[in-house]
Amino acid sequence: MSHGIFSRSGGVSSHCFDSLNVGLSVGDGPAAVAENRHRILSRMGTRKAVFLNQVHGKTIHVLNQISNPAKRQTPIIADGLVTDMPGISLVIQVADCQGILLFDPDKKVVANVHSGWRGSVQNIIGNCIDVMKVRFKCQPGHIRAGISPSLGPCCAEFTNYKDEIPKALWSYKLSEKPYFDFWKMSCDQMIEKGMKKENIERMNICTQCNTEQFYSYRREKKTGRFACVISLKK
Q1: Is the pLDDT score of 70 beyond 60?
Q2: Which is nearest to 182 in space by CA: 86, 113, 117, 88?
Q3: Peptide bond into 19 cis (omega under 30)
Q4: pTM of the predicted protein model
């Protein structure tokens, strides 16, 4: 297994997309995005990659020989990917949302999940673990996870949280302030599915506080997307 969290540096995009933007739908030039994606694949040591059409839902796409991306003519609309196929990079594009990288070393299965606040509310991470269990017979206790840089509790302000976030999740709100700890929420969602706390790592880097390293939609509005990538080695 190999994985990488790529910062916004090291690419060819300019202006607000400076410089390693991998998002095609944010207004950057297609040629620059293609070159940036090529650079990421070169760093990962793979020749194929899957980029989703992310829609802030909870759908997990299973990548296998039948659904091989080389055979597809239409984009994959989903917010998570799971596969046991080696040599293919699973890419999540983020700019404040969490990229959740998952790996089962026993079953040789990897997954990548895009979880913004809407995904967290829908428990897309739990849904992904369920897919890994059903489709690949993974045991949650064997799964390892990493949480990418994303909006931290220092900046995850939701002034309308009573309308946006279910009351059952209000325990993740900081005392006296409408700020939420989505990092802890994600960890708890994984543990509730049977994962071990010691197998979960989080980078604890807030994107809004660190725009010199990572894109942040909340701070910059018009900006790029950085890549969270995982793959199985051949």
Answers
A1: no
A2: 117
A3: yes
A4: 0.95
Number of folded domains that form the chain: 1
pLDDT of 131-176, one tens digit each? 999 999 999 999 999 999 999 999 999 999 999 999 999 999 998 8
Alpha helices in 23-65 (DSSP H): 30-44
Q: Count CB neighbours of 208 within 10 A.
A: 21
Average pLDDT score over the chain = 96
Give me the CATH number covering residue 61: 3.60.140.10
SS3 at position 94? strand
Per-residue model confidence (pLDDT) at position 74: 78
User: Parallel, antiparallel, or unpaired: how do β-strands 80-83 and 60-63 relate?
Assistant: parallel
In whole angstroms, what is the distance from residue 208 CA to residue 221 CA?
11
91 and 228 Cβ atoms separated by less than 8 Å: yes
Q: How far apart, in whole angstroms, are the C-alpha atoms of residue 131 and residue 125?
A: 10
Structural domain boundaries, residue 35: 2-231
CA distance 28 to 40: 17
Chain centre to alpha carbon of residue 55: 12
C-alpha dihedral (105, 145, 9, 212), degrees to nearest 10: -160
Integer Cα distance of 226 and 201 in angstroms: 19
Judge whether residue 177 has pLDDT over 90: yes
Cβ atoms of residues 211 and 96 within 8 Å: no
| CA neighbours closer than 13 Å in the CB half-sphere of residue 215 | 29
Residue 71 has pLDDT above 80, yes or no: no
* Per-residue 3-state assignment (H helix, E strand, C coil) for 28-89: CCHHHHHHHHHHHHHHHCCCEEEECECCCCCCEEEECCCCCHHHCCCCCECCEEEECCCCEE
